[in-house]
Design brief:
alpha/beta, Rossmann fold, eight-stranded mixed beta sheet, about 35% helix, about 25% strand, globular, disordered N terminus
Length: about 250
């Protein structure tokens, strides 16, 4: 999976990663283009965020806008594939990305579909420096593209308000993930451009947990996300974290 964000020494920008995603910015909203895998992946992560957020904040999942009144920050928002459905669920959404081209694409698309989303070309540490906090922070398919993953996760944790949640997703650093997430996805199936992922940046679940804990967030659940080649769809599998996985963490009130 792909997304963008940040990192240099002492910060979050990785120039190589930023340039890579700048070249792909125009393709975000093409469901059959280079971000097709992310469009296919989106429903399972959206359902997960909605379910766990409703459980935690005592909302009715049958409500059309169950996240009304909650502030959500999507870190590394790309073209806004998560921001827009979160806004439709009633949340007040801020999307940040270190690639200005991505933010411009996101803004234009949000205007076209009449959604009010606060998009900013900035980084997690800059938002943190401004003293802002959010009820929910999303870090989905981002950490594998940053230069200092541990520091990035800690910043995401610090951006969560007391009693809030952070959702994170990435790829596990396993031989299976290399075979499927890099060789299979980039070279055989050609789902994403070659060079999209660096297997060395994939993150083991224990590392994800430690990074968020450094930001004051306790991971409460991890679940695998697996691809079914027969249906072309993704589904949750809590027993299989070998390749793609995601989870939710909680900050004490």
């Amino acid at each position: 999976m792909t997304a963008t964000e940040e990192f240099t020494a002492g910060g979050s920008r990785d120039p190589h990663e930023l340039e890579k995603f700048r070249r792909m910015a125009d393709a975000w909203w093409d469901p059959e283009g280079i971000f097709r895998p992310l469009h296919r992946f989106n429903p399972v992560r959206l359902d997960y965020i909605r379910e766990r957020a409703c459980e935690h904040f005592g909302r009715d999942t049958r409500d059309i806008r169950p996240l009304t009144g909650l502030r959500i920050l999507d870190v590394g928002c790309g073209g806004g594939l998560l921001c827009e459905p979160m806004a439709r669920l009633g949340a007040s959404v801020t999307g940040i990305d270190a690639v200005p081209d991505n933010i411009e694409i996101a803004r234009v698309h949000a205007e076209q579909v009449d959604l009010d989303i606060d998009y900013r070309a900035t980084t997690a540490e800059d938002v943190l420096a401004d003293g802002e906090t959010f009820d929910i922070v999303l870090s989905m398919e981002v950490v594998e593209h940053v230069a200092d993953p541990f520091g990035f996760l800690a910043d995401c944790g610090r951006l969560v308000a007391p009693g809030g949640l952070v959702f994170a997703a990435t790829l596990n650093r396993t031989p299976k993930a290399f075979a499927l997430g890099v060789v299979g996805a980039e070279y055989i199936l050609r789902w994403v451009p070659r060079g999209t992922h660096d297997w060395r940046k994939f993150m083991r679940p224990s590392e994800l947990v430690d990074g968020l804990q450094a930001g004051g967030v306790e991971m409460v659940e991890l679940t695998g996300v697996v691809f079914n080649p027969l249906t072309g769809g993704w589904s949750r599998n809590p027993r299989d974290l070998d390749v793609n996985y995601m989870g939710v963490g909680r900050k004490a009130a």
